[in-house]
Write a structure and sequence with these properties.
The structure holds 2 protein chains of 2 kinds. By secondary structure, chain A is α+β, with helices and mostly antiparallel strands. Helix content of chain A is about 25%, strand content about 40%. Chain A is built from 3 helices and 12 strands, in the order H-E-E-E-E-E-E-E-E-E-H-E-E-E-H. In chain A, the strands form 2 sheets. In chain A, strands 1, 2, 3, 9, 10, 11 and 12 form a 7-stranded antiparallel β-sheet that branches. In chain A, a hairpin with a 3-residue loop joins strand 2 and strand 3. The longest helix of chain A is centred in the first third of the chain and has 27 residues. Chain A is globular and about 70 Å long. By secondary structure, chain B is mainly alpha-helical. In chain B, helix 11 runs antiparallel to helix 12, helix 11 runs antiparallel to helix 15 and helix 16 packs antiparallel against helix 17. The longest helix of chain B has 29 residues. Chain B starts with 5 loop residues before the first helix and ends in a 5-residue tail after the last helix. The chains are: A alpha+beta, B mainly alpha. The interface between A and B is large, with 37 and 43 residues.
């Protein structure tokens, strides 16, 4: 009986380690080298009791012009990636099946008019709204409030000054590499600011 | 008897000299009784044993919580590989503790500490990986992973602290729109609770703890049912009332105490309270709101609860249980089929009055103060509600109140006389 209990316990511990180990292997040792994309973003600062302070990112783009395809709220769809003239990542199209070119999986939000369009006469401009899968940047709790203030100030004007560097893997998974402020890593920017 | 009432033994040992003086027992019997019970009292575990267990478990929980907060500090000044290595340390340490506990067959303090520390280790490992790689994910997704991999610890260590933590983690799913998924995560805890509740020593700490833990589990199920929550409340109130009565009637009938022993009878108290509140206020819900949406599962829950409690009431030949089940069935039918809310209100209050009067009469007949008190509380609640209700004009309300007040006074006189005649007091 004790032997069975011991085996069951060890299997439980292995199960507990399985997901983290799987994630480490997938990210650190991918089958194909991931591409790096730069996304514009804005931010707000909350708190997670298990994972610490983080900056919530409103990563852009969050919409593309609507086509005839219908999606449901919360549905996972595939966003084909592209790069604009400024070198920033864009979403070229959405699809229900994985496309041939580089893509990430996003969550579909809604179909409709963009709020800023309400002031114009043309209500025919419809959009597909979606949410990119990188919403949080974790950092030391002492830096989080300051980082949020910096990002909020910068993104009021030019969203190119606050950029999220993301590694996109061949299977559509994406992992945040760094948050850059005015071309510098956030950590370095904060260090230079305090000097 | 499997459960030992040490308080009763102490009382009996103190009573022995007086019993001998009053020639109830002779000296030989006194000595034999004293020897018999004193030896059991001497062998009783000291109260400190339970205190030590509680302190050990509490200390383990605090250490684990501190570990989680330490990890959450975010040691981003350290290299990634070092942080990844540190992430595995809590779980590996907890694994060593768990193996030691199992191999050396350590007692329940070690088992509780092992289960909680392994869970904390899995939480810190997963949380650190998310932190290092900035992985997104909601609290529900995080908890679903933790609960899915750690639920076997419930059975491996038979840990009640872990069961409490697991129950706490379940509440991360209350926003979920998938009831089957909620049920899947609830199942391991439910089976664990049922396994403990079916033990023979119904007054032991594991069974008492399981009874208490079933309350937040019931709350979780009710909240998860969202718009059908009222059906969930009806089902659980019926189950708690009937099973609470069952446990009360089957506990070691060595020593009757006045009032309600809340720490041993949470079900009975919740059942009574639930029935009272449902009958007082539950009829406000419109039938159309209950019958919309997918009510298949909630309806199965309600009907199953009626069936199980009905069968138990018949098997036990308990008019108390039968009254509770019947009241809830009538209430259920009333809110489903009676469209006129005013009429539904009157019917429910009539049910409450009937149930309250039944409890009062039952309490008097059985010489059970707690049942009598509950009946009086139910009637009083109804009276207070109607006092502030504007359904009748003031004159008739005044007449009604005075009449009921007179009935109370007469009932008090009757009970007093009956207890004096009995000369045994009211239990």
């Amino acid at each position: 009986m004790n032997k069975i209990r011991l085996i069951a316990f060890l299997l439980t511990v292995i199960a507990g380690m399985a997901y983290p180990v799987y994630k480490i292997i997938k990210i650190e040792y991918p089958e194909q080298v991931p591409s790096v994309y730069r996304f514009r973003c804005g931010a707000i600062d909350p708190y997670d009791p298990f994972r610490g302070r983080f900056v919530t990112l409103r990563t852009l783009p969050d919409r593309i012009p609507a086509d005839q395809t219908t999606y449901h709220y919360g549905e996972n769809v595939y966003a084909t990636l592209g790069v604009d003239s400024d070198g920033m990542a864009t979403v070229v199209s959405l699809s229900k099946t994985p496309p041939a070119s580089e893509f990430i999986t996003v969550k579909y939000k809604r179909h409709g008019v963009a709020f800023e369009d309400n002031e114009t006469v043309d209500r025919k401009k419809q959009w597909h709204f979606f949410e990119l899968p990188f919403q949080r940047f974790y950092l030391n709790e002492k830096h989080a409030p300051e980082a949020e203030n910096i990002v909020a100030k910068l993104t009021r004007g030019d969203t190119k000054q606050c950029v999220l560097k993301v590694k996109v893997y061949a299977d559509g998974n994406a992992v945040i590499e760094d948050l850059e402020i005015k071309g510098q890593s956030l950590q370095k920017y904060l260090q230079n600011k305090t000097k | 008897m499997s459960w030992k009432n040490y308080k009763f033994m102490e009382w009996l040992v103190k009573e022995l000299p007086q019993l001998r003086e009053n020639a109830v027992i002779d000296q030989t019997v006194e000595e034999r009784l004293r020897e018999h019970y004193q030896s059991q009292l001497n062998a009783a575990p000291p109260p400190q044993k339970y205190l030590v267990s509680v302190l050990a478990v509490f200390g383990a929980c605090l250490i684990c919580l501190g570990m989680i907060l330490l990890i959450a500090f975010n040691w981003d000044m350290l290299p990634k590989s070092l942080r990844l290595g540190i992430a595995f340390v809590p779980l590996l340490s907890a694994t060593v503790l768990g193996v030691f506990t199992i191999v050396k067959k350590k007692d329940n303090r070690w088992r509780e500490a092992s289960a909680v520390s392994v869970m904390a280790g899995v939480i810190t490992l997963t949380a650190l990986i998310s932190q290092i790689y900035h992985l997104s994910g909601t609290l529900a997704e995080f908890m679903s992973l933790i609960l899915a991999v750690t639920f076997p610890l419930l059975y491996i260590f038979r840990s009640y602290t872990f069961a409490g933590c697991y129950c706490f983690g379940l509440f991360a799913f209350v926003e979920s729109n998938n009831p089957l998924l909620n049920l899947l995560f609830l199942l391991p805890l439910l089976l664990f609770l049922i396994w403990n509740l079916l033990r023979n020593d119904i007054n032991s700490y594991p069974v008492t703890f399981s009874r208490w833990l079933s309350l937040p589990v019931a709350l979780f199920v009710v909240i998860s049912m969202k718009s059908d929550a009222l059906l969930g409340v009806i089902a659980f109130v019926t189950l708690f009332y009937v099973f609470g009565t069952f446990y009360r009637d089957h506990e070691a009938p060595v020593f009757y105490d006045r009032g309600i022993y809340l720490h041993h009878k949470p079900w009975l108290f919740c059942g009574w309270l639930g029935i009272t509140l449902l009958l007082l206020f539950g009829w406000h819900t419109l039938p159309s709101r209950i019958l919309t949406g997918d009510i298949f599962l909630p309806l199965i829950l309600v009907l199953s609860s009626f069936l199980i409690t009905g069968i138990l009431a018949i098997r036990e030949r308990s008019d108390e249980m039968a009254a509770g089940v019947l009241t809830m069935i009538l209430f259920f039918l009333c809110i489903i089929y009676v469209d006129d809310r005013q009429l539904a209100g009157w019917l429910c209050h009539a049910l409450l009055l009937g149930f309250g009067v039944f409890a009062v009469v039952r309490g008097i007949r059985a010489r059970r103060m707690e049942i009598f008190n509950i009946g009086m509380l139910q009637i009083s609640s109804l009276v207070i509600y109607r006092f502030f209700s504007a359904d009748f004009d003031l004159f008739w309300r005044a007449m009604g109140f005075m009449a009921i007040g007179a009935i109370f006074v007469v009932a008090n006189i009757v009970v007093n006389r009956a207890s004096k005649k009995d000369n045994g007091g009211v239990k």
